[in-house]
Design goal:
Blueprint (H helix, E strand, L loop, with lengths): L1 E8 L2 E18 L2 E10 L3 E2 L5 E12 L8 E11 L12 E2 L6 E7 L4 E5 L2 E9 L7 E2 L5 H8 L9 E10 L4
Antiparallel strand pairs: 1-2, 1-12, 2-3, 4-5, 5-6, 6-7, 6-8, 7-11, 8-10, 9-10, 10-12
């Protein structure tokens, strides 16, 4: 899965021009639906007007089983970095969300699925969550309060939006 789009979270309002890429497997095992999360990669998102970057990372939970009410659920966190090393941030763990308190997305369709190719199967669709809450920063030590102020965090449910244009390539396993 590969997605670009737009993130509005607290004071952050930035396009996601570089794709987030997610690898996962799903299917039926002994008649029961199962999923295995593989890997997620994403480029840092520059937070306009600041030296800060936010890098989307897997937050410990994914469920891409779609139904009539959702496209899937996905937990994400955003590692906080500094463009060109301009700020002295902790080397690990400084993030918006954590494995224990990730940003929980419940993605809903924004339009119909379009098939781009049948062999291999490639489809595209729009998905968004406009109802998620965003926690304050964690693991940032004494900079947490200042980072929360700059990023406008925490941010209540309904004040944020994650919009994505998603392309999924499906490969069967034998």
């Amino acid at each position: 899965m590969h997605a670009t789009g737009h993130l509005r979270m607290g004071a952050v309002d930035e396009p996601l021009t570089e794709p987030m890429e997610i690898t996962f497997a799903e299917g039926r095992v002994d008649g029961e639906f199962r999923q295995v999360f593989g890997e997620m990669t994403a480029a840092p998102i520059r937070v306009g007007g600041t030296p800060l970057t936010l890098t989307p990372q897997y937050g410990g939970y994914s469920d891409f089983l779609s139904d009539d009410t959702r496209r899937g659920k996905f937990d994400i966190k955003f590692t906080i970095g500094s463009a060109h090393g301009l700020l002295a941030l902790p080397s690990t763990g400084c993030s918006v969300g954590s494995d224990e308190h990730a940003v929980h997305l419940v993605l809903k369709d924004t339009g119909p699925t379009r098939v781009i190719s049948m062999d291999p199967l490639v489809a595209t669709f729009g998905a968004q969550d406009t109802e998620f809450a965003a926690p304050g920063t964690s693991g940032c030590g004494p900079l947490s309060r200042a980072l929360d102020r700059v990023l406008g965090l925490p941010s209540a449910a309904g004040e944020n939006a994650f919009d994505m244009e998603v392309t999924v390539a499906v490969r069967p396993y034998t």
